[in-house]
Amino acid sequence: MPSDTASPTDVAQPFRLAGHRALVTAGSSGIGRATALALRTQGADVFITGTGKRTAEVAKEIGAAGHAIADFTKPGQAAAAVAQATDALGGLDILFANTGGPKPADFGSLTDADWLAAYHLILGSAIELTHAALPAMTDKGGRVIYLTSVAGVVRPLPGLHLSNVMRAGVAALAASLVSEYGPRGITFNVIAPGPIDTSRRRQIMGFQAKQRGVDLDALEAEELGGIPLRRFGSPDEIGALAVYLASEAAGFITGRVHVVDGGITAV
């Protein structure tokens, strides 16, 4: 990644990422796929991870440089994915650390195994990915972007205990790294989406509808009524923000949580 010091951004194409190399985890569907495609569209070379055979298909569809099958609930697989990406790309400039979400559940029903699995999936994988990726970035700077949620990062949400706790930890990780790696030109930012139209949102709403004993369609209409913009967000909107944060135009932005929720946590 070119140096951020005293280098003006190309005003004609401020978000172009040609020559940049990006790893997007959980990149085979939803927000991860949208982000990988957005980075690729802006010229970045992209490597994605996923958990199933669909990963290879998506990598081919978006013109990715490669892919890896990785289950982040298993320690070591996140670091291995970074090694594979760095080898395939010839280096690494951008890390978009993203995972699926843990199950929604009542607190009393959660077991020690549930908490441990959620740790490895979200916070543990973020630590592992970061630890493995930073050495590839330290000579010339880089971008680390963590995909979290408003759950826990902005405020805890009912029934999302695992996500509330682990994603808050990821945001703390990002903030704690800013001073140490800022002098090396590496930025750390967190994207905290609210109600984005993905299978994860539908899973959570299904749990909430069952918990409250209400119809899913009625609950969805109620949630839409509470969003100032009166719609759910699109994965593409998260991808667009990720492109900006990965670009030279965002070189002076670090240590921030960027909430994308249609205004729902502002009212």
Explain the overall architecture.
Helix 3 (77-89) packs parallel to helix 4. It contains 9 helices and 7 strands, in the order βαβαβαβαβααβαααβ. Mean pLDDT is 92; it is low at 2-7. It has helices at 30-41, 54-62, 77-89, 112-137, 150-153, 161-181, 199-212, 216-225, 235-246; strands at 21-24, 45-50, 66-69, 94-97, 142-147, 186-193, 256-260. A 7-stranded parallel beta sheet has the order 3-2-1-4-5-6-7, with helices on both faces. The protein is 45% helix and 14% strand. The longest helix has 26 residues, at 112-137. The chain is α/β, with parallel strands linked by helices.
* Strand arrangement in the largest pleated sheet: 3-2-1-4-5-6-7
Task: Output mean pLDDT.
Answer: 92
Order of helices and strands: EHEHEHEHEHHEHHHE
User: Tell me, what's the shape?
Assistant: globular
Helix residue percentage: 40-55%
Q: Care to give the gist of this entry?
A:
By secondary structure, the chain is α/β, with parallel strands linked by helices.
Keywords:
alpha/beta; 9 helices; 7 strands; 45% helix; globular
Fold blueprint:
Layout: E1 21-24, H1 30-41, E2 45-50, H2 54-62, E3 66-69, H3 77-89, E4 94-97, H4 112-137, E5 142-147, H5 150-153, H6 161-181, E6 186-193, H7 199-212, H8 216-225, H9 235-246, E7 256-260
Parallel strand pairs: 1-2, 1-4, 2-3, 4-5, 5-6, 6-7
Helix pairs in contact: 1-9, 3-4, 4-6
